[in-house]
Sequence to fold (522 residues):
Amino acid sequence: MTLLATRNLTAFYGDFQALFGVDLSLQAGETIAIIGANGAGKTTLMRSISGLLKNLPEQVLLNGRPIGGFSAPDVMALGIAMVPEGRRLFPSLTVEENLLIGKYGRSVEGAWTLDTIYQLFPILKERRNNPGTALSGGQQQMVAIGRALMSNPSVLLCDELSLGLAPVVIRDIYAAFPRIKASGASIVIVEQDIGQALKVADRIYCMMEGRITLSGAPDEISREQIHAAYFGTHA
Amino acid sequence: MNLLDALVQGILLGGLYALFAAGLALVFGIMRLVNLAHGDLIVLAAFLILALVTTLGLNPFAAALIVLPLMFAAGWALQYLILNRTLGPDILPPLLVTFGLSIVIQNGLLESFSADSRRIGLGTLETQSLNLGPVTVGLMPLLTFLSAVAVIVALNLIFYRTSLGRAFRATSDDAVTAGLMGIRSDRIFATATGLAAVVATIAALYLGARANFDPTIGPARLIYAFEAVIIGGLGSFWGALVGGIIIGVSQTLGATINPEWQILAGHLAFLAVLLFRPRGLFPRSVD
Fold:
């Protein structure tokens, strides 16, 4: 069953068109990864789905319902939570407060509570009274993921999780994904680290210059196809 | 007036200035909005309390309880319908709009209540005092100070112990990301201004009961509130109390030396703090 879909999605920054008719779909329980180089339109796609950029209503569908014109709080209340690029923790809030604020607009019972987030990322319990921004980059990313999970979303959008993090830290963060998946959330990951994306995703979409240039299951796509779709050239 | 007495009276006077300042600190702390009409909102609330006292014969404290929700609603609507439209990277639009609002409120009050100087009568409470050994303190100044402390404790509890307080701080940090958490910044800002109007109403009760007021005194009260907020560190509630006390003590000490120096001494203390601690005594670390 298709949970989330975009239909002929376009996006503009002033006169500059960033997305050109993007169609993607996310099935219930599925993890998809969107890969692409800088400027491919991945973050714009996330911003469009999350309500930070307004679209025509029928360009974004959640369970078939048009939500493209909804604001970010309205989209979040429907169960689409986002881990934004750069973590964007609130500096005035402690780690625990940053987690608690994640369910401000949607208080739904589910797998994720403070306790289960602390089980997923035990270091956060130790640091729960520290200011969120006093943590290392990897720990901040854990807070950002935990904050999004606190609303028990049906769709989790993750924008550039690995950006600026050491490989060992990225591995630790992605180690949490099987448990997140098992909780029932469907996941959209935007990632420049192709290796990581291929490991975790059921399907990938490759973007270039605001268009989807390739899609399919990781084991159906060759390295050469990804290279061509990613850079627009043949390996 | 001996020195100890001047000090105590100054601290108690600081409570009144802290009440003027707390609402301003709240709004500035969350929205970085300088509300130039804050003093006029206090005077408006004082007139509303007076109107209930004179027309219905209510006790001023009971009248204030009725005015509190009305002022909350007025503050909420003011922010939601008007001031939210002025917020943005440019600080000039909110200054101009609140300056205009200040003039509108003053003229509205002049039309409705005339330019006569008024006072909210509290009967014998006005003259009662407590003898605390070497000093005697008036019951009303003491009540004002205790109310200021209670207001600041309550604001701190709301800010640091409630879900609404977390939303206030998160929106102040980053309204866009707060939206991703389901926080509607326009409503959060409206609630903050509503709360500031509630604090303004408490300030109005004591302003009106302790001194004469007329429709035009708002801006003069706003200056004390500003100074208290800036001395304390922008957005800090306890800082606003300390700032109020510093101005209050400076004024009473100045008056002890020469009655003409009362107001000047308060302003000089403000300038001195600004000179040595330009970010105030308790600046917020994220500013």
